[in-house]
Amino acid sequence: VKFVYDFTEGNKDLKDLLGGKGANLAEMTNLGLPVPPGFTITTEACKVYLDSGEEPAALRDEVSAHLAALEEGMGKKLGQADNPLLVSVRSGAKFSMPGMMDTVLNIGLSDKSVQGLAKQAGDERFAWDSYRRLIQMFGKTVLGVEGDLFEDALDAAKKAKKVTVDTELDAADLKKLVTKFKKIVKTEAGRDFPQDPREQMDLAIKAVFDSWNGERAKLYRRQERIPHDLGTAVNVCSMVFGNLGPDSGTGVAFTRDPASGHQGVYGDYLQNAQGEDVVAGIRNTVPLAELEQIDKKSYDRLMQIMETLENHYKDLCDIEFTIERGQLWMLQTRVGKRTAGAAFRIATQLVDQGLIDEAEALQRVTGAQLAQLMFPRFDEQAKVEQLGRGIAASPGAAVGKAVFDSYTAVKWSRSGEKVILIRRETNPDDLDGMIAAEGILTSRGGKTSHAAVVARGMGKTCVCGAEELEVDTKRRRLTAPGGVVVEEGDLISIDGSSGKVYLDEVPVVPSPVVEYFEGRMHAGADDADELVEAVHRIMAFADRKRRLRVRANADNAEDALRARRFGAQGIGLCRTEHMFLGDRRELVERLILADTETEREDSLKELLPLQKKDFVELFEAMDGLPVTIRLLDPPLHEFLPDITELSVRVALAEARQEPHENELRLLQAVHRLHEQNPMLGLRGVRLGLVIPGLFTMQVRAIAEAAAERKAAKGDPRAEIMIPLVGTVQELEIVREEADRVIAEVEEATGARLKLAIGTMIELPRAALTAGQIAEAAEFFSFGTNDLTQTVWGFSRDDVEASFFTAYLEKGIFGVSPFETIDRDGVGSLVKAAAQAGRATRPDLKLGVCGEHGGDPESVHFFHEVGLDYVSCSPFRIPVARLEAGRAAS
Ligand code: ADP
Ligand code: MG
Ligand code: MG
User: Fold this and answer.
1) 200: closest CA among 85, 116, 115?
2) What is the atom index within ligand 1 of the atom nearest the CA of 96?
3) Which atom of ligand 1 is nearest to the CA of 90?
4) From ligand 1's centre to the CA of 102, what distance in Å?
5) Cα 57 to the chain's mean position, in Å?
6) Which among 7, 430, 877, 883 is placed 20 to 30 Å from 205, CA to CA?
7) In this structure, what CATH number is given to the domain that contains residue 794?
């Protein structure tokens, strides 16, 4: 195997091997863009190193060969005393992991070559600045020295000189600082800063490999569900210098606004600076547009390159560049992160520009982003006290108590508080706190700062760079320009879509996207409408592409109507248990307590018209669309009063010598019906088989309701679904009775009802014997909640809170199997049962109800295994429609 690729050898499709940064550096090189030459060490080399603890034997020689070629091409040698070649050693995994991995710049500088660099550049200050940066970065990331020690020394030097920014330190100051830094390294790392350039490079490469398994990197991967075994590539890139004076600088840019999608000039630029300076907020950057005045030639070239990149990647790109004495260099590009709203807008903009087609547009957005757009926002009518305004970095409306450090954020959120994490700027140490917070507010940094990038990735509300707000983390307070002070624990509200920060809690209102789905808003001209327009078009693309139909889980006419507005093509699950609650509880109690046949029949007779009315309303709401009604499923004790409460009532009545015969009978019934393990007890079809007349009454109510709708010239399409079936015999018995009742109703009303009867597949045995069950079922609906419980042997209510975090942390699964279907286990049962069912009955209708029906990943799986529809809660319907479209394109 080949472990090292020159930038001229790779391309953008080799991200697995070269990492994102390396693949794109190669792509830009081959596009003829100005990229400083270099090479990439593959993720394969990293994996060998991580597995065995040693670098692969061939790696050293390959690196030597590529370094030699690089030196040849540049006409100077790494660290050469009189004319040194300097390089950066940069990590770059397949997925960008902002701030997680470590990059070391200026490798090759030593006590000797720093002199050479000074002469070569004709700038002593620059050479010593570069050297102190090397020792600082190398000390921190390679030798593990506490970074603050260097920062403090730098601050002390500035203070001693009574200056505020680092550019005001001269060569002599920086030279002294280098001596200080070397001392820090010696004391803290117990070794001298290495003077041998190759040793510097090799140690840095190893450090990049090691950083893959750093705690923060691991945490980020868990959060983002990035596999732990990918490894990182390492890029060795010849240095270009933005710190060579005012005609040099470094910047970041987006080819369009990552928050709105609008085309324009977006980015930040910092003169006389190197590397991270621009995002670290150590000096104030200028907006990219100002580069036009500073260096028109480089600005024009950059605009040209940005256009080339957009047309080439056919997407928004983000870019890192450096200008060295008027010469522009490209140091990184990648398809840029963006807000959910921008994703929809950009996708449709690119379709309009003819760069991508509809199918591709669907790949540019996700159901998760759509879900994010359906979040509520702040009420614009509300009376608010604005504290200030920062940069809208990641949208959403977040309200919480102000906290000023990560530790407090985590602690308070664990105890159920909603918090807003306020920092001057964030760094990787704040990750825990960012996860715990509702939103993040910083007073420094732009759209490309750590806080902004990470928050966008997490879908968390973030306002950054609110410079007018003075953040004092030591005293735990924030001071607004008007003098208003927010102390730790005070409520604040931040708007990640406008960048505004408010005192106190601001009420929230529904999102325009939801208003649109509800039919209360249509396309137009202002900002919200532009988004609505984009969503509208993308949904149309998805609806055209998808094969899966999308139904709703809805129990009443109101939910059904809402689901219909959201695009539901039927009801996949109507639970009938709610029809037994409220006022009707008493009737159910009587049914359960009935001593005689007549008593039981009487209470059923009273329930019948009530049930029928529910169904008539539902069929009317869903006229012309299928409505799957599940017969009673939960254990009966759920309809009886709580055992403790009842015992108290009985005891009280006894003490007061009041009549309490009914309570006593109820209590006995509760005891009788008590189950150790209700989830696996008397429920579902088992109820229908042991409580005479119960299912019969429900089937009759459905049939009579359908007949009534027919008589009213409606088009009812009821499907009767039997829950928790484990064997075909259960289904046959229920079915026989149901067929009889339906025939009776048809006879009595003269209507032809065509009611389909089917079953849920939610027990492993049902899935395993699906071929037999299909003989008695016209449709299957996979109940993946119960199926997951029974396949894993997990009781959902118990395990999620108790040991799932441990499982997730240990990586046993990347996501809860209740959230995303477990393809290998539960999924393979679904797949086999679908096949077996269809083998028996080719026109068997297949669907899924349960939360997985609205989960993006799972929808793709259900598409792949050939189900006919997914059913989910009304609110998730747009997400399911979109993902079904994405799955099919
Ligand atoms: P990250 O993944 O954290 O962005 P990078 O590898 O991109 O890390 O490098 C960090 C900073 O150093 C970036 O601003 C980048 O542009 C800059 N940089 C990296 N390599 C070079 C180089 N060869 N010359 C000049 N600047 C560089
Ligand atoms: Mg970078
Ligand atoms: Mg179930």
Assistant:
1) 85
2) 2
3) 6
4) 10
5) 39
6) 430
7) 3.20.20.60
Cα first-last separation, the chain: 35
pLDDT at 884 > cutoff 90: yes
Structure tokens at 217: 């990197």
Give nearest CA residue, ligand 1 atom 9: 103
CA dihedral 872, 877, 883, 889 (to 10 degrees): 120
pLDDT for 187? 97
Which strand ranges, in their side-by-side order, compose the sheet holding 249-256?
Answer: 286-287, 263-271, 249-256, 317-324, 327-335
**CA distances, 636 to each of 71, 150, 463, 690 (Å):** 80, 68, 51, 12
Question: Do 727 and 762 share a structural domain?
Answer: yes
Residues 629-653 have pLDDT tens digits of: 999 999 888 888 888 888 898 899 9
Protein residue whose Cα sits closest to atom 17 of ligand 1: 275
Q: Could you tell me if the CB of 142 is within 6 A of ligand 1? A: no
The CA-based dihedral angle spanning residues 681, 682, 684, 685, taken in that order and rounded to the nearest 10 degrees: 120
Ligand 1 pocket check for 428: Cβ under 6 Å: no
pLDDT of residue 393: 82
Residues 731 and 820 in one domain: yes
Q: Do residues 367 and 380 both lie within one domain?
A: no
Which domain range does residue 516 map to? Answer: 340-371+512-537
If one residue of 78, 87, 90 were mutated to test the ligand 1 pocket, choosing by the most ligand atoms within 8 A of its CB, it would be 90
Ligand 3 centroid to residue 277 C-alpha, Å: 56
Find the 88 Cα to ligand 1 centroid distance in Å: 7
Q: Is residue 641 part of a domain?
A: no
pLDDT at 609: 95
State if residue 239 touches ligand 1 by the CB under 6 angstroms criterion: yes
* Annotation says 860 is catalytic: no
Is a pLDDT exceeding 60 seen at residue 81?
A: yes
Of all protein residues, the one whose alpha carbon is nearest to atom 20 of ligand 1 is 88
CA distance 6 to 217: 27
Residues 553 and 683 in one domain: yes
Catalytic annotation, pick one of 237, 849, 852, 860? 849
The CATH number assigned to the domain holding 43 equals 3.30.1490.20
Please indicate whether residue 450 is annotated as part of the active site: yes
Does residue 243's CB lie within 6 angstroms of at least one atom of ligand 1?
no
Predicted pLDDT of residue 730 = 98
Name the domain boundary from 212, 238, 264.
238
How confident is the model over 22-30, as a mean pLDDT?
Answer: 98
**Residue 652 domain-assigned (yes or no):** no
Q: Which residue, by CA, sits nearest to atom 8 of ligand 1? A: 103
Residues 13 and 114 in one domain: yes
The answer, yes or no, to whether any atom of ligand 1 lies below 6 A from the CB of 330, is no
CATH at residue 383:
3.50.30.10
Encode pLDDT of 373-422 as tens digits.
987 789 878 999 999 999 888 888 999 999 999 999 999 999 999 999 99
Atom 3 (ligand 1): residue with closest C-alpha? Answer: 99
The number of distinct structural domains making up the chain is 5
Please determine, for residue 801, whether its predicted confidence score (pLDDT) is greater than 60.
Answer: no
Mean per-residue pLDDT for 856-870? 97
Residues 175 and 256 in one domain: no
Q: How much of the chain exceeds pLDDT 90, in percent? A: 73
Strands 104-107 and 87-93, by their bridges, are: antiparallel
What is the pLDDT, as a whole number, of residue 167?
86
Q: Find out whether the beta carbon of 237 lies less than 6 Å from any atom of ligand 1.
A: yes
Nearest CA to ligand 1 atom 26: 275
CATH of the domain at 312: 3.30.470.20
Q: Does the residue 640 lie in any domain?
A: no
Same structural domain, 470 and 432: yes
Residue 228 shares a structural domain with residue 261: no
86-120 pLDDT, tens digit each? 999 999 999 877 555 678 999 999 999 999 999 99
Q: Which atom of ligand 1 is nearest to the CA of 97?
A: 2
Spatial CB neighbours of 861, under 8 Å, sequence gap ≥ 6? 821, 823, 827
Q: Which of 285, 313, 335 is the last residue of a domain?
A: 335
Separation between Cα atoms, residue 177 and residue 157, nearest integer Å: 7
ipTM above 0.85, yes or no: yes
- Above 70 in pLDDT, residue 805? no
Note whether residue 659 is domain-resident.
no
